[in-house]
Amino acid sequence: MALTRQCALAGIARSTVYTPRLVIDPNELELLLLALIDAEYTLHPFYGSRKMVVHLGKAGYLVNRKRVQRLMRVLGLAGIAPGPNTSRRHPQHKIYPYLLRGVIVTRPNQVWSTDITYVRLSRGFAYLAAVIDWYSRKVLAWRLSNTLDSEFCVDCLEQSLRSYGTPNIFNTDQGCQFTSDSFTGVLKLHGIAISMDGRGRALDNIFVERLWRSVKHEDVYLKGYVNMPGLQQGLTEYFEFYNTERPHQSLGNRTPIQVYQTASGGGARIVDKFKERKTYLEVEAKSKAVATTLNSMDYCLDQRVH
């Protein structure tokens, strides 16, 4: 079909087709700001755009909030504190309830979860997705992508299922990659219960968040990867080390693969802190009328099951 006819059918001018398209690479300042925001967010994931503006200002970079918001969107970041627009949900995608509050994880493949993080390169950035087993902290599969779409997340999920079978519950955040039909469809096909973090709940997917911190501080920041092939090779080596050699204090200094294979020494539990708070009045209602709050833990994380 002639180009003139194609343009007529599409309702666009021919000049639009002939106009050269310029591919604009991020400049050095843009890459530096991305790196600074990424590093600070890894340390303080509750930082939103306002606090990031202050942080960058203290580092000597006067950047307005709109630019910081744009850069955080590029990285797929948002402050975890409750508030408007903190979730990247798709308005037409179904959101599933959070199923893990108060659940005690007592064996491998009971609960898996996934998330996406940004990895900076010397001349750009990439996105990393991983699936982790809650009981053992074992990384079951991971994938890299240069775009923030659902395709590489689905690929990561399917690799986990092919290699390790199916979990009872699979937990994600409410990002559009995980609420998409392509992702939830795979879970439904395998009869897996779908759980999604509550909005503003920083602790609902805490084990993957801890994984990202380890990956960045123990590997990415130290090695300063230049390109995707180098990052692919480096993360291959790191995740092998993470699963098979790196001792985990929460696992009694055993490795994730040891705990996963033996089904002992692991476990997890996330408790709603508001339901866990008690008072002496509630505890000793029959004998005392004292309403002093107990000095007990408000929430329980990463608690091994004995």
List the helices and strands and how they pair.
Elements: H1 3-10, H2 14-18, H3 28-43, H4 49-58, H5 65-75, E1 104-105, E2 111-121, E3 124-133, E4 139-145, H6 151-164, E5 169-172, H7 176-179, H8 181-189, E6 193-196, H9 206-223, H10 228-244, H11 256-262, E7 268-269, H12 273-276, H13 280-283
Parallel strand pairs: 2-5, 5-6
Antiparallel strand pairs: 1-7, 2-3, 3-4
Helix pairs in contact: 3-5, 4-5
Which terms summarize this structure?
single chain, 306 residues, alpha/beta, Nucleotidyltransferase, domain 5, 2 domains, five-stranded mixed sheet, two-stranded antiparallel ribbon, disordered C terminus
**Are there runs of 5+ residues with pLDDT below 50, and where?**
81-87, 276-306
Q: Which strands sit side by side, in order, in the main sheet?
A: 4-3-2-5-6
Please indicate the count of domains. Answer: 2
Radius of gyration using CA atoms only: 23 Å
